[in-house]
Amino acid sequence: MAGPEPVTLAGGVVTLEPLHRGHTDELAAAVSDGRLWELWYTSVPTPAGMAADVEARLAQQAAGEMLPFVVRRNADGAVVGATTYMNLDLVVPRLEVGSTWTAASAQRTGVNAESKLLLLTHAFETVGCLAVEFRTHWHNQQSRAAIARLGAKQDGVLRNHRRMPDGSLRDTVVFSITDAEWPAVRSGLRHRLARHAG
């Protein structure tokens, strides 16, 4: 099967746009909202490093290794984060949703819930994935709780899995949602979004 092609995914709260170089300044502004790069257990680019990060992601997209998006809030048109399809395995098929960050002021506003709904709907219902994976740092309790709230199940922990920018070793917690679990996860996300809309 062909890999996921760049596509715009539009919802009521956010629109996910395929990453391009013209997004660099908007992403640098968004990442400054909450100074997200200062969290030691994340790998979020600094504003000064954003152009290099965008170039690296576009190179990986050209190599067929990922499909990066920016998250644009519909209410005011502001870019408020980034997310990515990565670790594409088109034989199964399965992929990981990762490299996700959200500006501090957009957290817990429905932005992340709808982003996940859009990404998962496309992965399961268009790409035909049998599983979608999420990975995060053992110490990133906020991310682990958010992934669990989706309805993802923890598969395990990869010990000493990655070297972080500060030199420390990351234990990576792996979660996944299977195609059989997707209808219940979809219902839960729709319920959460309805509460935000109310």
Automatic annotation (TrEMBL):
Top-level taxon of the source organism: Bacteria
Keyword field: Transferase
Any one Gene Ontology molecular-function term assigned to this protein's record: acyltransferase activity, transferring groups other than amino-acyl groups
N-acetyltransferase domain sequence ranges: 14-153
PANTHER family for this protein: BLL6696 PROTEIN, N-ACETYLTRANSFERASE DOMAIN-CONTAINING PROTEIN
Protein name: Protein N-acetyltransferase, RimJ/RimL family
The species this protein was found in: Geodermatophilus africanus
Lineage of source species: Bacteria, Bacillati, Actinomycetota, Actinomycetes, Geodermatophilales
